[in-house]
């Protein structure tokens, strides 16, 4: 299943800001991965004091059952079991005085732990 962020009538699993795409693409290229095929995998895993946490890694290619979101030249892969937890989320990149990194804004979250590392839907 594939979705696009640049128009069309299909529903997006996640939206990706331009800043997040630029940062991820730079990292993919530094790993010498082909950005036409490889992408950023966004997933949900068990863990943390609230029950679930986000994970991200680079993959050479999507799995057969992944949803593929394409935005600003970046391909984001989401597996079916993670999709139900992150549908409608926004992936952003924040660069602040104390920290820099990717951030997931998830409208499905009912509660987060105090440190913000885990969540519950």
From TrEMBL:
Q: Outline the extent of the Core domain.
A: 14-117
Q: Name one GO molecular function term.
A: 2 iron, 2 sulfur cluster binding
Q: Name one GO biological process term.
A: iron-sulfur cluster assembly
Q: Which InterPro entries match?
A: ATAP, ATAP_core_dom, FeS_cluster_insertion_CS, HesB-like_dom_sf
PANTHER family recorded:
IRON-SULFUR CLUSTER ASSEMBLY 2 HOMOLOG, MITOCHONDRIAL (PTHR43011)
Protein name as it appears in the record: Core domain-containing protein
Q: Which organism is it from?
A: Halarchaeum grantii
């Amino acid at each position: 299943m594939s979705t696009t962020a640049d128009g069309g009538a299909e529903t997006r699993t996640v939206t990706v800001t331009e800043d997040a795409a630029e940062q991820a693409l730079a990292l993919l290229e530094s790993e010498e991965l082909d950005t036409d095929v490889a992408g950023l995998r966004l997933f949900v895993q068990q863990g943390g004091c609230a029950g679930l946490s986000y994970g991200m890694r680079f993959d050479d290619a999507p799995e057969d059952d992944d949803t593929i979101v394409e935005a600003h030249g970046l391909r984001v892969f989401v597996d079916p079991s993670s999709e139900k937890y992150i549908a409608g989320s926004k992936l952003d990149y924040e660069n602040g005085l104390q920290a820099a990194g990717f951030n997931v804004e998830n409208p499905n979250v009912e509660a987060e732990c105090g440190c913000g590392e885990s969540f519950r839907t």
